């Protein structure tokens, strides 16, 4: 499905998506649908509420012509997210009606500027169109091939084209991330993840270096190796670099993604139900790879390094065990009380590597880290732990721009006591309570006071069902919010509405 900005007539396409606000005044409604809308409103069949959909069909010479009325709610309440959700719904209807091409009429808004309107329409439709069908023998071809956005004011056209270009890059990066998460662990192991990262690097324009087991050992990444050693599939350390701001060489944003290509729990084994979706335990890695792709392709003026410690958490005679005391690249010792709390053990070495070897001056780690974040926030919101409120404010801005919801959790010193061990420097679990916070703070012990954000995407990286613009399975969570975080740092977007 491809998008164009083009002013075609209704007769030149199979259908028209016509947006309507709940409080649209008569004169704003085009003659082509006015009498219909009047009647529908009087009959109480269509009010224009956000996401409401009503369609009519007219027989024409060589087929049918559809008009889809799409509600956008109250004018002042409009947001990018309302637009994404509404157009995702419209796209699903367009597919159900088997339309090949459709016109999307642009609308005016004081709340959401033209760039963000274009982006939101595109994202809503294109992300709703994605489906992981690689392993289906019979694929269901989507009918819809072309979408034409029409009715953009002449003075807005350049901005709209620009926004469409950016939206295309961002959505393709999200889809790359979804593809990585959806690929089963029998195909996507650490070696394959590294290969895919390399290919994506080539395509989008960033450098990828991959270290194998011997080098990981040589670097002293003991904690990472302890998790990795139970699997017959060797680990990889994936390092991605993009330098877009040569003038500020010391400013380096470090992105660290959890890259467990499979998490069985190890000897603290998971029940089957909890294990079936654990191919998604590299959702953080997918997020940082997707973010690198979009940052590089858009040539943002920023320096970014991304690090993924990729491995599998398995059971074997070589695997680490509950009760073991292990070391880490930073030299701190850790008492392993639960082998299923493995993500943090890989992340601390990756974070330490990013700071020590790649000179990251700020760190964001992204990880499918705890089941507890699902209990606390459900699957709509990413939980955040930070040591720096200003950095969190920047993330909130990126959240607003991307529509990816975040919520800050408390990080008081009292919580830090919960991960102190009597026989080692730290222990890898903090007990039943406050699981997301203690997991985050465990990583925080390794950030050397650099500004740091920890994003627990265990609830948001995976969707059990198809929802609006989220497909079933990997959602690509993290890609867009990280992109906007980087973009906010690289420049102030002129349009913030
Ligand atoms: N990968 C899991 C977390 C997870 C759970 C991700 C559900 C996605 C959905 C992580 O490695 C894990 O097992 N965490 C444990 C920590 C516990 C042992 C302290 C958990 O959440 O149960
Ligand atoms: Zn685990
Ligand atoms: Zn895990």
UniProtKB/TrEMBL annotation:
NCBIfam families: PRK00913.1-2, PRK00913.1-4, PRK00913.2-4, PRK00913.3-5. Keywords: Aminopeptidase, Cytoplasm, Hydrolase, Manganese, Metal-binding, Protease. The active site is at 270, 344. This is Probable cytosol aminopeptidase. Gene3D superfamilies: Leucine Aminopeptidase, subunit E, domain 1 (3.40.220.10), Zn peptidases (3.40.630.10). The lineage of its organism: Bacteria, Bacillati, Bacillota, Clostridia, Eubacteriales. It comes from Clostridium simiarum. PANTHER family: CYTOSOL AMINOPEPTIDASE (PTHR11963:SF23), LEUCINE AMINOPEPTIDASE-RELATED (PTHR11963). The gene is pepA. Mn(2+) 1 binds at residues 263, 340, 342.
């Amino acid at each position: 499905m491809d998008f164009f900005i083009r002013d075609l007539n209704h007769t030149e396409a199979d259908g028209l998506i016509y947006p309507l606000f709940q409080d649209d005044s008569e004169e704003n409604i085009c003659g082509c649908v006015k009498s219909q809308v009047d009647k529908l409103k009087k009959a109480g069949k269509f009010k224009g509420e956000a996401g409401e959909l009503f369609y009519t069909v007219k027989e024409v010479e060589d087929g049918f012509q559809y008009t889809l009325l799409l509600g956008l709610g109250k004018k002042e309440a409009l947001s990018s997210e309302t637009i994404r959700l509404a157009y995702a719904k419209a796209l699903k209807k367009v597919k159900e009606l088997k339309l090949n091409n459709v016109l999307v009429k642009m609308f005016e808004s004081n709340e959401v500027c033209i760039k963000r309107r274009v982006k939101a329409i595109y994202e809503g439709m294109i992300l709703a169109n994605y489906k992981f069908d690689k392993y289906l023998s019979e694929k269901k071809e989507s009918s819809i091939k072309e979408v034409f956005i029409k009715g953009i004011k002449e003075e807005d056209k350049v901005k709209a084209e620009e926004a469409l270009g950016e939206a295309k890059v961002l959505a393709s990066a999200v889809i790359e991330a979804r593809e990585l998460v959806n690929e089963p662990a029998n195909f996507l192991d650490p070696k394959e993840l590294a290969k895919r990262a390399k290919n994506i690097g080539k395509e989008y324009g960033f450098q990828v270096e991959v270290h194998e087991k011997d080098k990981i050992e040589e670097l002293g990444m003991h904690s990472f190796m302890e998790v990795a050693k139970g699997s017959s599939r060797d680990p990889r350390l994936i390092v991605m670099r993009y330098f877009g701001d040569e003038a500020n060489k010391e400013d380096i944003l470090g992105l660290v993604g959890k890259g467990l290509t499979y998490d069985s729990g190890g000897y603290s084994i998971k029940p089957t139900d909890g294990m079936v979706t654990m191919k998604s335990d590299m959702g953080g890695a997918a997020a940082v790879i997707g973010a690198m792709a979009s940052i590089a392709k858009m040539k943002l003026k920023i320096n970014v390094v991304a690090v993924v410690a990729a491995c599998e958490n398995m059971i074997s005679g070589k695997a680490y065990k509950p009760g073991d005391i292990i070391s880490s690249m930073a030299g701190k010792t850790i008492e392993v009380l639960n082998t299923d709390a493995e993500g943090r053990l890989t992340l601390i070495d990756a974070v330490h590597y990013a700071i020590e070897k790649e000179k990251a001056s700020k760190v964001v780690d992204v990880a499918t880290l705890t089941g507890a974040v699902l209990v606390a926030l459900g699957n709509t919101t990413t939980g955040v732990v930070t040591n720096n409120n200003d950095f969190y404010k920047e993330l909130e801005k990126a959240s607003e721009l991307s529509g990816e919801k975040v919520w800050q959790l408390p990080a008081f010193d009292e919580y830090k006591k919960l991960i102190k061990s009597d026989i080692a420097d730290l222990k890898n679990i903090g007990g039943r309570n406050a699981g997301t916070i203690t997991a985050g703070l465990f990583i925080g012990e390794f950030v050397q006071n650099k500004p740091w954000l920890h994003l627990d995407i265990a609830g948001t990286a995976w969707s059990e069902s198809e929802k609006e613009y989220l497909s079933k399975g990997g959602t690509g969570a993290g890609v867009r919010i990280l992109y906007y975080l980087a973009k906010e740092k690289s420049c102030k977007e002129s349009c913030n509405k």
